[in-house]
Fold these 2 entries.
Entry 1:
Amino acid sequence: MHLYEPFRYLYDSVHLNLGIKRAIARLSSKIQQFVDEQVMFFFYTKMERYITTRIISHYGADYRWGDEKSQNINKTTNNLGYGLIHHALIRNLRPKRLLCIGSMYGFIPYMMAKACSENGMGHVDFVDAGFDVNNKKNTDNHFFGQGFWAKTDSKKHFSYYLKKGYISVYMMTSRQFYKKHGNSYDYVYLDGDHSFIGAKQDIDMFWPGLSNGGILAIHDIHFDFKKSLENVNEEFIRSAGTVKFEMDKVWKLFNTTRYKLDVTNGYSGLGIIQKIGKK
Ligand SMILES: C[S@@+](CC[C@H](N)C(=O)[O-])C[C@H]1O[C@@H](n2cnc3c(N)ncnc32)[C@H](O)[C@@H]1O
């Protein structure tokens, strides 16, 4: 007989056949239902909402300027958008070696590492060059990075709502990382250099090492940079420098690839490819 655990002892200690056991079982079921629906679910929903809000804020899922479209999040409905797609894929496929290139404040690498920690396996190598939109040397390669990783204690940053040991941070370019650490991965996410030449170089480096059944995910495959500048002020346009957002062209390289999915949101878009076989 299934019993709500606090009632188990009481149930087991009754031996008289006066219908007491049946009454305890009925009461047990009613109380369990009440606790689950009125207490646990209530607090679970509140906690989930609270923690989601804190994660969005700490890991800058809205880039800390209220951009809910880029990562497809929605603060009102407690929605972690594209972060949830990475999380669900990693929970399902259970990759061991994961690579994330580029992030403003760590939202996607966090979601990837969180999924690994829930799986109890897998490790994320997060690589970001620490480019800064305000640094004149980065005019053509900042991709709106805020120089965050150069100013941050990344270990401390990634200790927020995350168990230790599921992520390592490398502040360097993807090319430097490749030369030092190679390219053997089961899950690769590209959100660093968005120019055609830069992103293609990332693909040329990391696609060959991706395992059979592994995932290559690419952010901004539908992003129209020109259009996105239509409603912003002159100062913002000036700060953009000469960066090129060309992930749409990069995505076209996979036109004939069979196992892929465009997750569009009418703005940025997330492309997902599963590598089947060696090519
Ligand atoms: C700001 S992100 C784009 C925003 C991103 N969609 C997000 O969700 O946070 C681009 C990042 O890529 C990094 N980056 C650009 N080129 C890179 C490269 N070749 N290797 C590593 N990181 C790079 C920049 O430092 C920047 O932080």
Note: The beta strands are 97-101, 123-127, 167-170, 185-190, 210-219, 260-263, 270-274.
Entry 2:
Amino acid sequence: MGKFVWNKELETGIEEIDNQHRELIKRIESLDLAIYGGKAKVELVMMIEYLESYVNEHFDAEESLMMKINYPDISRHISEHKSFRELFARIKREYMEKGANNYLAMELDREVRKWFENHLLVTDTAYASYLREHPIQTGG
Ligand SMILES: [Fe+2]
């Protein structure tokens, strides 16, 4: 569980994006704790509501930032976003059909932790370090 803490490598320096990453990490931690504490269903609903805005606002913010800096690996990044959007849509559909249950909470927990390890720690830290080396030109 201690793995899900803010990681300096993730820092983009863009406040909106860094805050969205911090928020996701906090939510993963809460879902984890809720599952151990027998409150999985409530937290599952909150996580689904949260991810709804995460896959829209956060992904859009990242994608337009990467366009702005001409990030060379943008298409791979966008395709990872697309697969997470699809995964989320499937889980949400299951929730709409069957309601909240512990299995779905555990599945979502597993998937967001995988997402953290494979995307935030790898793909997001890659563009964050590119951004630190190629800062946005502010004119002048
Ligand atoms: Fe991303």
Note: The chain is about 75% helix and 0% strand.
